[in-house]
Amino acid sequence: MRIHDPRSWRLPLAAILTTIMLAGVAPAAAADEAADLLMRMAEAMLSQAYEGTLVYEHGDHLESLAIVHGHIDGQEYERLRVLNGEPFEVIREGDKVTCVWPAERRMLEDQRPGDLPAPQPPRDLRSLPQHYAAELGGTARVAGREARILRIAGEDHYRYGYRMWIDRETGLLLRSDLVGRDDSVYERIMFTHIEPLDTVGRERFRPSLEGEQYSRQANPSADSTRLEDPEWETTGLPPGFRLVSHQNEAMPPHGEAVQHSVYTDGLASVSIFVEPAGTDAMPLRGLSRMGAVHAFGHEIDGHQVTAVGEVPAATVRQFGLGVQRR
Amino acid sequence: MASKTESMTGDEALSALVDGELGALTRNRIVGRLLEDPELRARWARYHAGRASLEGAEPGLLGPGFSERVAAAVSAEPPVRASGRLAGVRRPLWRRGGAAIAAAALVAVVTAGGVVALRGGIFESPASGVAATAPDTVVAAGGDAVPIVSGTYGDGLGPAEQERVRQRLTVYLNSHNRFADADEMPNVMPSSRLAGFNADP
Questions:
Q1: Is residue B145 over pLDDT 50?
Q2: What is the CATH number of the domain that holds A283?
Q3: CA torsion A123→A127→A133→A135, rounded to 10°?
Q4: Same domain flag for A109 and A199
Q5: B149, B122 in Cβ contact below 8 A?
Q6: Using the beta-carbon criterion (under 8 Å), do A284 and B168 form an inter-chain contact?
């Protein structure tokens, strides 16, 4: 009769247990490091003053933009100017957004409605939204600065992933690619030059237009009211998406009330617009694509439904087809 | 007999390219030289940055490392003249961009010996309601991939109808970006989208 010496399997068992533990600890540490980096980036993009130039590539468009960002009296300011083609700029001052067409001497002011949630400070990104996974990559140089690469993968066909190049010194986001599951790039932002600033003056956020000779108007879509009991709802949401807000908007150019619902999975968002059919001579039917942004439109029960978001086509289609009267 | 570009010095040709003074054929030849000559690309970037400075842009706008892509974009664009634009005549951005991205695709193929994957349509019928919609792409050096297909608006519409749908979609996009950034990760993407989609309304 053969008797096993208990000590004979202690060594292999210890090795196996150690391997299992290390296999568990290493990814956990890497995930923590990735989350730390993401948190640092989010905080830096909100709090850091900086200026620079960047390239924004979306679909068949390529825009060169100049940006300056900072805080004045506790309020976040940002000015973004398009440098190629027709002059255009966007100025954010807290919740107020002003679009400026200098050549036409025209400004459009837009204010986030007071009863809607204001932009939130960075939440705890240590636990990434469900259906996403983060992975740390190597290092690279962007805009002459050392960057750490972070990959955030969408875990199904309903969302894109992100590749981010984050400045090792400041935490600023130097480059961001919105990528599909096959690593195709749908949208890209990349700084070609960036300069952290200690302070930034109010004069940096003045629009290019000066004097009185320009037209200034408020965006009618800013006349929004929050809906507590919306007439339309979306069923069969793609996994991970949740409702953020319902509101009625007076949508240009017809000025009719449009129900606007916003959904998010924590990183990407989708808007659903429902309005009486017939207000538009050329309503959207089927799918459209503009870089990373997809849109899907169809008519239901005498109403035009349009789903728009920086998500794959399958996602906006599912949202659009899921809209029904409550 | 030497052609006009062959008789020009590199600097003259670059200057003419940046100033939009070359015809299409000549422009394409210069771009071809840019693709083959890194030193020429670097000089082109400096020229363009210089002109951008004169027009009020920061000199750091177009670094040499980004010259291939932007060279293609500029080569495909008509010259922008501050005082010469016809009132009321606007060329839709997506049309200008279409030529630019085609040139960018050419750049990627030539420089990287990349693979062009073309399919008949952008959207494929989803299986069981869910499908990945991979774009047509050019795979460039370093694993980067750039979309090369123009924006497509609606199903089965002609160019004029697509343009009307595009204008309508811009209204939806503005509203979407205005509300959507409240819950997103802080970055410059929403503002850039706002700028990108409104630059040529």
A1: no
A2: 3.30.200.100
A3: 90
A4: yes
A5: yes
A6: yes
Q: With contacts defined as CB-CB under 8 Å, which chain B residues touch A56?
A: 192-193, 195-196
Residues A51 and A144 in one domain: yes
Q: How far is B1 from chain A (nearest CA, A)?
A: 37
Q: Which residue of B has its CA nearest to A91?
A: B191
Residue A14 domain-assigned (yes or no) = no
Locate the domains of chain B by residue range.
1-80, 89-149, 153-201
- Domain final position from A176, A205, A234: A205
How many angstroms away from the CA of A13 is the closest CA of chain B?
Answer: 42
Q: What are phi and psi of B32, to 5 degrees?
A: -60, -40
Contacts by residues B2-5 (CB-CB < 8 Å, ≥ 24 positions apart)? B3/B29, B5/B29, B5/B30, B5/B33
CATH number for the domain harbouring residue A150: 2.50.20.10
Nearest beta carbon to residue A308 from set B144, B150, B173 = B173
Best interface-test mutation with A: which of B175, B181, B198 has the largest number of A CBs within 10 A? B175
Q: Which position has the token pair 């600097």? A: B11
Which residues face A67 on adjacent strands?
A: A52, A80
B42-90: per-residue pLDDT in tens? 665 555 555 444 443 333 333 334 445 544 444 443 332 322 222 222 2
List chain B residues with CB under 8 Å of A57.
69, 146
Contacts of B86 in chain A (CB under 8 A): none
Between A299 and A39, the more confident residue is A299
When divided into structural domains, chain A yields a total of 2
Query: Which of A82, A92, A158 lies closest to B199 in CB terms?
Result: A82
Q: Confirm whether A37 is domain-assigned.
A: no
Tell me which chain B residue has its CA closest to the CA of residue A271.
B176
Q: With beta carbons under 8 A apart, name residues in chain A contacting B169.
A: 284, 288, 290, 295, 308
A196 and A305 share one domain:
no
Whole domain around residue A282: which residue ranges? 219-325
Residue A214 placed within a domain = no
Contact across the interface for B188 and A262, Cβ inside 8 Å: no
Confidence at B172, pLDDT banded by 50, 70, 90: confident
Given an 8 Å threshold on Cβ–Cβ distance, is A66 in contact with B57?
yes
Q: Which residue of A has its CA nearest to B95?
A: A60
* Residue of chain A whose Cα is closest to the Cα of B172: A308
Query: Do residue A135 and residue A226 come from a single domain?
Result: no
As a whole number, the mean pLDDT across chain B is 47
Residue A63, in any domain of the structure: yes
Q: pLDDT digits over A214-228, tens only?
A: 666 665 544 556 666
Looking at residue A87, what is its pLDDT? 85
**Whole-Å CA distances, A286 to A164, A308, B172, B198:** 32, 12, 15, 23
Query: Residue A233: which of A264, A267, A270, A274 has the closest Cα?
Result: A274
A171: left (phi over 0), alpha (psi -120 to 50) or beta: left
Contact A80 B165 (CB under 8 A): no
Whole-angstrom Cα distance, residue A243 to residue A272? 11
Q: How far is B3 from chain A (nearest CA, A)?
A: 30
Choose from A45-49, A229-233, B3-7, B11-15 the range with maximum mean pLDDT.
Answer: A45-49
